[in-house]
Design brief:
heterodimer, A: mainly alpha, two-stranded antiparallel sheet, B: alpha+beta, Nucleoside Triphosphate Pyrophosphohydrolase, eight-stranded mixed β-sheet, 8 strands, elongated, mitochondrion (chain B)
Chain lengths: 165, 263
């Protein structure tokens, strides 16, 4: 959850500051990398003793990591904060009710299975005993697909020429 | 999970009573298959959930670090164009007080420049056609189709000899087990043109009606289609849970409704 006040404060705090320890480490790494590549790469990368031309991408990466100002949330008025808290509360209630409904459905499904086993024990003990045995190599079939955002081009496999009855 | 102790003792007790009781009880046991076609597409968030997702997504977007456009995109590439289109759509969003919305939101670095039509042709891109979530079967309302209502679980119901809609069922014969009887009954009533995976060896539900008990075994259809075999099944439908109540008899529905999925 994004908390408006905390986030804005944190963002403002680090916006203009460069993290010096990391920058030093990056410089050292860049220096080491460029010198090693210069010695192994050949004449193209080295201009002079004090002017090793490092890979320009290192500069770009340093710029991105350390010199970019992160965006801050726009200033929130009192009404905006009230709205935010109301939305947070509503979302919490929504999630609680949805989760409680799913739990109730799960428990009802299990209770139905339990009742079925008890009824089977009463009706036919031979079938009950066989049902209680554990399957030795129970695995999910390979053809079971995971649902996706949109369906595949061939939505269903009808197993042969007699398709789409 | 299941308490093995007490039911096993009950079973042993029942066996001790008499063999004729067991034989009589066995004759009244029916096996049926609750055959389901699992969802093919994911559920899409609707209503409040979708609106809340939009709001929190906007907050995250607004407080995220600046995207280094020059680092990731080649100038004038189609990927950059697509990203700029998304940014333009984002720029229109504002969830705080409308009065506080910055008016001079310039489009980030010129969106529509650099030969719009050229890049798509020269790149030789293959456009992937995304299939719609609503199919022809949805439009036609074809209840026999397996391509209807892709985001829901569909269950197979057949019209049996008595003219009632029910799950495919049959009597347990001879020495066969419950899940074997269920599979055989499904094949006899709906043809062998389906690839089915029955889950486990036991029932997920039961229904007591008129002296006989029907035990339901859960199954998933992986491929193929049902082809009803005439005396046992005259017609079939693939319907979701909410469409079942109007189709099944009242006590049958009461017995199975907690077994069926709402997703």
């Amino acid at each position: 959850m994004v908390v408006v006040g905390g986030r804005a404060a944190a963002a403002a705090g680090i916006s203009a500051r460069v993290r010096p320890g990391l920058l030093r480490a990056a410089k050292a790494a860049a220096g080491a990398k460029s010198s090693s590549s210069g010695s192994s790469g050949g004449a193209g990368t080295r201009r002079g003793a004090n002017q090793t031309t490092a890979d320009p991408r290192y500069e770009q990466m340093k710029q991105i990591l350390f010199y970019q100002e992160p965006r801050t949330l726009p200033a929130a008025s009192e009404e905006d904060v009230e709205r935010h808290l109301a939305i947070l509360r509503a979302e919490k209630i929504f999630k609680m009710t949805a989760s409680a409904r799913r739990r109730a459905e799960r428990e009802a499904r299990f209770a139905a299975m339990e009742a079925a086993y008890e009824a089977l024990a009463e009706a036919d003990p031979r079938l009950y005993e066989a049902a209680c045995k554990k399957e030795s190599s129970a695995t999910f079939p390979r053809q079971m697909r995971v649902p996706t955002e949109t369906p595949p081009t061939k939505i269903w496999d009808y197993l042969g020429a007699q398709a789409q009855q | 999970m299941l308490r093995r102790g007490l039911p096993s003792r009950l079973a042993r007790g029942a066996r001790l009573l008499s063999t004729t009781r067991v034989a009589a009880a066995g004759a009244a046991v029916r096996a049926a298959v609750i055959l389901q076609r699992d969802p093919i597409v994911l559920q899409q968030s609707k209503g409040f959930e979708a609106a809340a997702d939009g709001y929190f997504g906007w907050l995250e977007y607004m407080s995220a670090e600046q995207f280094p456009r020059e680092f990731f995109f080649k100038k004038g590439s189609s990927a950059e164009k697509k990203w700029l289109e998304l940014e333009d759509a984002r720029a229109a969003e504002w969830y705080f007080d409308p009065a506080s919305k910055p008016q001079d939101k310039a489009a980030p670095g010129g969106s529509a420049d650099a030969e719009p039509g050229k890049e798509a042709e020269s790149g030789g891109e293959r456009l992937i056609a995304v299939q719609p979530r609503e199919t022809a079967a949805d439009a036609a309302g074809d209840v026999r189709s397996l391509e209807r209502r892709l985001d829901r679980t569909l269950y197979l119901v057949v019209k049996d000899e008595a003219g009632q809609w029910a799950f495919p069922h049959g009597e347990v014969q001879g020495e066969e087990l419950l899940h074997e009887a269920a599979r055989r009954a499904l094949k006899e009533a709906c043809g062998g043109q389906m690839s089915v995976w029955t889950v486990g060896r036991g029932p997920v539900g039961h229904c007591k009606a008129g002296g006989r008990t029907t035990f339901f075994v859960k199954g998933h259809i992986l491929a193929g289609q049902a082809r009803p075999v005439q005396p046992l099944a005259s017609d079939f439908k693939w319907i979701a849970r909410e469409e079942m109540e109007s189709v099944l008899p009242a006590e049958y529905w009461a017995a199975v409704k907690s077994v069926l999925s709402t997703v």
